[in-house]
Amino acid sequence: MITKFKEIWGKTDDVVLRYPMVLTAALIAAISSVVAIEIDHQANQFLVTKLAFAGCLGISLMFGIKMLSQRIGRGFFIEILGAAFLVWFYFYLPDSEKNFTVVNGYVIFSLVILLHLFVSFSGFLNKKPELNFWQFNKNLFINIFLTAVFTGVLVLGVVLAILAVDKLFDFNFNNNLYPKTMLFLAILGSTFIFLIFNDKGIFQLEKDGSYPQILKFFTQFVLIPLLLIYVTILYFYAGKILINWELPRGWVSYLILIYSVVGILALLLVHPLKEASAKSWVKVFSKIFYYTLIPLLVLLFVAIFTRILQYGYTEPRYFVLLLALWLTTVVFYSIFYRKATIKFVPISLFAFGVFALIFPYVNAFSTAKRSQKTELIQILTKNHLLEKGKINFEKATQDSVVLEIANKFQFLNERKQQTFLLSYIPETHFSKFKKIFEQERYLANSEIRISFKNTIKSKEKNNYQNDYQGVFSNKRNYDIQNYEKLIVFSNTDIQNEEHIDDYMLQTRPIRDGYIFSGYIIDLESPTKVTQSYDLTPFLKKQLEKDNADQLNTPLEEISTEFDLHQYHFKVYFSEITNNKINKKDNIFTKEMVILIKKK
Fold first, then answer.
1. Strands ordered across the beta sheet of 485-489
2. What is this structure's pTM?
3. Phi, psi (5° rounding) for residue 569?
4. How far apart are CA 280 and CA 273, in angstroms?
């Protein structure tokens, strides 16, 4: 037992000395996550959350750099560059959650993928044998799986132990202790476990080893047969399109991308298997896979450009088109280049991803903004809504056109194109929109729709119009006189919490999966007595005021008042919509402003 303990302690010591930057990034991420929970809803919470994001990115970045430096040396210099990148990323993110946009989300998601791709090839930029590259990534994949299992057991065991102590000995731990513990162990604990499995790094991971039998069985008898069935379905759908001579549905592009990416993964998994040891359908699949993609790529490009030509570029459409171009590159490289290497797959995808993020003028974000500006100008011009270069909000306009314009304004406002948008706003509306664009960007969509005074509902009957209700509040300034506290919940599709003295206020949606049927406000006293108020009847009553001839009906004010415990509440709503699904209510509130005072 003592010998085993010394062995584990020795490995721990080696890991700390071998991967200090990886562990530092994990420690920063773990501590920042815990602190972010502790200071929930405080002004500086997002600054700490940014640090957690940077730390999490740093784990994979510093591990990839370590693999690279083990191969070529110059570890300290490369780590300095990596640290500088993380510092840049921290300051790239906005200073407050209010200014965090979907673009920031796309950048974070893209960087997560790119840094994991970097790990896969960072130690193999030279001409190392291809089998070493495959062994390295195979061992990484196995170690990630084992890390997930070990971390899951660790987190569950520790959390249950805390729960047992809390309940058996009446310690009454704060409820925040549980998410804090889970996040700390999930980040720092999983990193440490992963590094122990990887031990000496690239030289151990690239060693030749036996092919895992479970992986061989899964690939040969589960994954590849499913892919053969899947491609048959896609070919039948392509035949249906040709027979009926119709455009493909938009979501078929995602199906083709899934088949392509999973198929390439399957080929990578069976790469080292000898022809003699593979089943016949594996041999067939390996030989024909890239050829089967050629007709599907044609279908993919038709589906993508159908959407782009209709609605212009957005970041998701740009990324889908980029993946299609990458797949085309991989297909023709694999078919026509005799010395094709599997390293080309992650390296080329990494290169395409970097291009999409940083290449001037034609990166994803510049292209999307430029395209949506053009689309907005075309809509305004086509529908004769411009008078002396400004939008005429008094002109009768179809609801579908109003909705398109509102969506374009919301899209561009979230991407900080206020100067461009304000150039189309008439003087009578200028100050109002300037304030909304700068301070309340999430209201841009609804404010545009409200501003059109003569919206005509489409005559064509469809499910959207039959099952849709919507009302908006014209009131934007709230009377807070005699009230002691103001709380704003912008994201109402999740449970929100806020302390009021020693009481805990909660707003929670009534939901069934993705369907929201109403909202409830709870107020829990220090003695754990909860009083509740159901907002659902009030919301439905307001929706009954919807004018069938308008897309959304403006109301002078949408508010309700009630008492819970010793407090009086007044709740304002900026927008309420009900987009029914299968005749079931699906109620959404844009924003909830709560004023509170003691009775």
1. 485-489, 592-598, 567-573, 559-564
2. 0.81
3. -120, 145
4. 13
